[in-house]
Sequence to fold (177 residues):
Amino acid sequence: MSPNQVSGNEFLYWINNNDLSCMSFTGSSYTWCNGRRGLHRIHRRLDKALCNGVCLDESDSCTYQVLVKNCSDHSAILSSHASNSLRKVSNFRFFSMWLQDTSCPKLIRDSLANKVVGCPMFILQHKLKRLKIEFRDWNKKSFGNVHNAVLLKQGLLLGIQHNIETTSFPDIDGLLC
Fold:
C-alpha cells in the first residue's frame, strides 16, 4: 500500500470511528481550482464539511455553503445548523453603513430620550430593546431589505463563477486571481 492509501484509510477509519457524516452543500460544486488557464484549468471538490451524530440529532439540518471564490485557490465554506429549538434568539447587529445616514444620530437621541421608570438596569434594558426595534424598522425603511439584496448579489456572483468554471475564456483567464 502506498503512503497516500495508508493516510486515506486512516482518515476514513477516524471518520467512521467518530460517527462523522458529510454534510450536504449548496453553492459551487467545486471548492478548489489550480489557477491555470484554458484547457489546463482543473476544478475539484476537495473540501468538505463533516458533522457528528449529536449535531444531526440536535439540528433540523446541517449543511454548508461553498462561498464565492476569492483570490485563494480554495473557496471558503460556511456551515449552517438549523436548530430544533422553538426559541429564536435575535442578536442585535449595528451596521457601520447606518453611520453614513444623517438621520441615524437623531434616531438614537430620540429613542434614548424617552422616559422609563424603574431601576437603572431595567431602564437601560428597556431603552436598548426599544432602540433595537426602532433600528430594525428604520433600517428597512431607509435601506430596504439588505439581507435579500446580499443574497441576490451572491446568486449573481455564483452564476458568474459557474460560467467561469464551465467555460474557458483564454483572453481573461489572466485577470482572475
